[in-house]
């Protein structure tokens, strides 16, 4: 979002807590911590950290055909398997999580990067601008062998973003590739309440007057379905690369919104990191 954000630093920091992608996906599948593979979490101290830099390709707004490019930090830091800071979930605490327990439960505060700067997008003039949103999150899941079932519930706690509640359910199949690589495929579905969906896809009565779109109530319901493919590859014991690609399709009220230009959405992240 180089052309729309006021500074590159602000864009990089907000993208660090994006909801759509991050290093913590493979980390879930690694939490057994057997030590048999080089890509698993370190077990020799209190800290496990992966820090680096990458690039995010993200839709200009939900329903856009245009992708924006933004530099991002790549973060996945954990202390004593309890306190974490990562690209996907933000800053949080694992209430239930251990190497020998397939269940996990946690709380975090993160950043949802979905936004819309309507005043700077041709054809969307008159719609309200929507900023990215700080969210309070409940994270839960369990592992069944190589399958990792994840549930996330998030409530907006900022005042300038989507101002609603959303839930996401995903089931990832993670497969180690040798001793230095891990690949995961995860279908998912996202649901939003009335406030969430209308913030991103609705047209209020006031917006219908100032824009070229009819009044539209997106309502509560499923927002999108999709799948992501991500990989974590180590070149050495310390240096690795993280890749993530995601496809989703807008459904329900989100797909019927009068300003949506395509129901098909694509995102991608690539980043190089150093593991401590």
TrEMBL record:
Signal peptide: 1-29
Example of a GO cellular component annotation carried by this entry: cell outer membrane
The UniProt record lists the keyword S-adenosyl-L-methionine: no
TM segment ranges: none
Main location, first listed in the record: membrane
One Pfam family hit: MipA
Family: Belongs to the MipA/OmpV family.
Name this polypeptide is given: Outer membrane scaffolding protein for murein synthesis (MipA/OmpV family)
Organism: Eilatimonas milleporae
Lineage per the UniProt record: Bacteria, Pseudomonadati, Pseudomonadota, Alphaproteobacteria, Kordiimonadales
